[in-house]
Write a structure and sequence with these properties.
Layout lengths: L28 E5 L6 H12 L3 E3 H9 L3 H8 L1 H16 L5 E3 L8 H10 E7 L2 H8 L13 H16 L4 E4 L5 H20 L1
Parallel strand pairs: 1-3, 1-4, 2-3, 4-5
Helix pairs in contact: 1-8, 2-4, 3-4, 4-5, 6-7
Amino acid sequence: MPVRAPSVANPPARPRVSHAVAIPVHERTIALVGLMGVGKSTVGRRLAKRLGLPFADGDVEIEAAAGMTVSDIFAQLGEAEFRAGEARVMKRLLEGPRMVLATGGGAILNEDTRAALKDRAVTVWMRADLKTVAERVQRRDTRPLLRGRDPLEALTAMAEVRYPFYGLADVTVDVATGAHAEAVEAIVQALDAHAAEQAA
């Protein structure tokens, strides 16, 4: 029986309004958001190549800044310190040149990060069926938030908290099935439609 996505009937408040000059859509970073395991990093690399843009993976950048793996940061410093470092890295990346950015699944929970994404990026929610994602992530034992937990139960709990924030994205693309190349093309088409809508 398929797992139903949590309700987003009561989404959180929109990020606070910035008085900065709006950045045109075609000059904004393309930020991929969504749960772990939906393919943000793999699809992001392909998308960056397709668009001729540089690519950055939020988790890789955090590891480089900390000189530690994500797993070690969680184990030695705790999730709160990881999130603080993540927010600093997201700020730096979003204030830099245009790129394709694969954000960590929980980055969107930080209010300052949400505001920066709203000001400087076009956000793309890569949405997938939770059962499909659970099947993917259980193949790897490198995700601290899943260790010692049933993947589907853990992802469902995360989705309850995070889906309302993901739902604020500029573009939503379903990527549950199909090849990564298909996901890239679906995102490109959605971005083109979004840009045309903004220009109208």
